[in-house]
Amino acid sequence: MIIDVIGGKMKMKILKSIAAGISFGAVEISGWIALLLTCLVSLDVILRYIFKQSIPGSMEITQALMTFMVYLVLGAVQEKKDHIRIDFFIERISPRVRKYWEVVICMVGLAFLSFLLVHVWESFYSSLEMKEYYGGMIRIPIYPARGAIFIGVGLMIVALLQDIVWLLASKEKVPIITSSEQREIEEAIQKAETKG
């Protein structure tokens, strides 16, 4: 029995590290796309105002790349708990009860995203089969952007499953999830206190 528990923990760690690696890669890709988009839009604006000429298909390229940039980071944002949360109710209840409410919230998110994942897959597959393209000066395929939505939603589902497993298996109290700004302020206060 001890071997099963240890083996289960090892499998979970391996799966978690694989998911973290994929999520990290998706964040890197998203960051490079943000840089590319910044350069593309800047160049397009410069060309439009100086030479009265824009980059052909820049609007369609921007639309497609924005989809990649936004959806690929969903899993990483969920792992860091940086999604917008309205927690005025949940922060007022005891940590033990909060744990169960966190599970319920994760399960609702999981149900919604699972439904979305099925429909996004159908949309991606349909777009791929019919070779769907954005209308415009140049033909840019739509299916890669829909594939990015599928990957992003899938990564967020994996992150929610990890949260649910941790919440159900952990004997620890559920930490109060704070915004990244609040965490930065608290870290700055702690650093100032240790220096002083």
Q: What is the molecular shape?
A: globular
Q: Provide the β-strand percentage band.
A: under 5%
Going by helix content, strand content and strand pairing, the class is mainly alpha
> Low-confidence stretches at least 5 residues in length (pLDDT < 50)?
1-6
Order of helices and strands: HHHHEEHH
Count of DSSP helices?
6
What is the end-to-end distance?
51 Å
Percent helix range: over 70%
Q: How many distinct folded domains?
A: 1
The number of E-state strands comes to: 2
Spatial order of the strands forming the largest sheet = 1-2
Q: How would you sum up the major sheet?
A: 2 strands, antiparallel
- Gyration radius (Cα, Å) is 22 Å
Task: List key phrases describing it.
196 residues; mainly alpha; two-stranded antiparallel sheet; globular; disordered N terminus
Can you walk through the features of this model?
The chain is mostly helical. The chain has one domain. It has six helices and two strands; from the N terminus they run H-H-H-H-E-E-H-H. A two-stranded antiparallel sheet has the order 1-2. The chain is globular and about 60 Å long.
SSE blueprint:
Layout: H1 2-50, H2 58-71, H3 74-80, H4 95-130, E1 133-134, E2 140-141, H5 143-169, H6 180-195
Antiparallel strand pairs: 1-2
Brief summary of the model shown:
The chain is an all-alpha fold.
